[in-house]
């Protein structure tokens, strides 16, 4: 059965597309009703990464996860050196101890390690793949993808084939593998283009394209077509716009007549001006097309 022959309109099987691409459920579920607390916390005087890590270790319950959240943001900065072995080892110790803490602490510490891009944290994050709690497992999967930690590829491959794992775990693994440069995983991803879950088909196509494989081109072309989303009532306009932007970006890896045709339509008549502009720029950069 081909990916395109599977019934596309199955609302009970469709996650919200924006969540699929960016694993937002991980963040939304954690932040949720705590938004006001976070806003209040973020208005305080900024602290260093070491200060925040210390708060994670000795702070109150709320302060620990709030500090872990802020730490996960700070570690995206390249203006501070986070390769100090003392800091690295303290972060790992905090993560290991968080297995008995509020899951939000462990989630944000995993994401913090992923944000560093430092392979030093890879083996620690691999342990998190087998946590009892789903959300902390998802955080470990995402963080390993952020690190592009090749030594975890076999672990992630095992998750894909484990029928006892949650569908969202399979989806998260597909996204993380697409962020790596390990092309040996391509044969394992291609069968997922026929997966019963439409989100897995979508993200598999995107991940394969990132790895230089053309097997999911038809799906990517569908994602560049606004009319395609009418089959998925759960996907609102902004989510469709975001999905289309991602598909356009991924399509730019290849020169393809099917992609070019979709881009021309978007450039000339799409209802969203940002989508039009993105399509115009892609046509010019990839195809030398002049508007």
TrEMBL record:
Presence of the UniProt keyword Transmembrane helix in the record: yes
A Pfam family assignment: HEAT_2
GO molecular function, one term: oxidoreductase activity
SUPFAM superfamilies recorded: ARM repeat
Coiled coil segments of this chain: none
Keyword Methyltransferase attributed: no
Keywords: Membrane, Transmembrane, Transmembrane helix
SMART domains according to UniProt: EZ_HEAT
Transmembrane segments: 16-39
Name assigned to this protein: HEAT repeat domain-containing protein
Organism: marine metagenome
Lineage of the species this protein comes from: unclassified sequences, metagenomes, ecological metagenomes
């Amino acid at each position: 059965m081909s990916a395109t022959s599977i019934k596309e309109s199955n609302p009970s099987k469709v996650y919200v597309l924006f969540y699929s691409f960016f694993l937002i459920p991980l963040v939304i579920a954690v932040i949720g009703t705590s938004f006001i607390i976070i806003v209040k916390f973020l208005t305080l005087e900024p602290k260093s990464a070491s200060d925040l890590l210390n708060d994670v270790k000795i702070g109150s319950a709320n302060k620990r996860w709030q500090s872990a959240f802020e730490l996960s943001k700070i570690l995206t900065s390249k203006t501070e050196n986070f390769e100090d072995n003392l800091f690295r080892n303290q972060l790992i110790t905090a993560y290991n101890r968080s297995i008995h803490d509020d899951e939000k602490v462990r989630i944000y510490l995993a994401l913090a390690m992923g944000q560093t891009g430092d392979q030093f944290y890879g083996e620690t994050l691999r342990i998190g793949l087998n946590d009892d709690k789903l959300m902390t497992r998802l955080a470990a999967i995402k963080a390993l993808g952020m690190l592009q930690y090749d030594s975890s590829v076999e672990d992630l491959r095992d998750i894909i084939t484990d029928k006892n794992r949650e569908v969202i775990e399979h989806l998260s693994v597909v996204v993380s593998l697409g962020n790596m440069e390990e092309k040996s995983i391509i044969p394992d991803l291609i069968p997922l283009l026929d997966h019963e879950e439409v989100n897995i088909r979508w993200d598999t196509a995107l991940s394969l394209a990132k790895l230089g494989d053309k097997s999911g081109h038809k799906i990517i072309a569908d994602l560049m077509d606004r009319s395609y989303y009418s089959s998925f009532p759960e996907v609102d306009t902004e989510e469709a716009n975001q999905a289309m932007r991602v598909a356009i970006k991924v399509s730019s890896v290849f020169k393809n007549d099917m992609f070019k045709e979709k881009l021309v339509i978007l450039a000339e008549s799409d209802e969203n001006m940002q989508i039009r502009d993105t399509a115009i720029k892609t046509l010019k950069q990839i195809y030398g097309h002049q508007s």
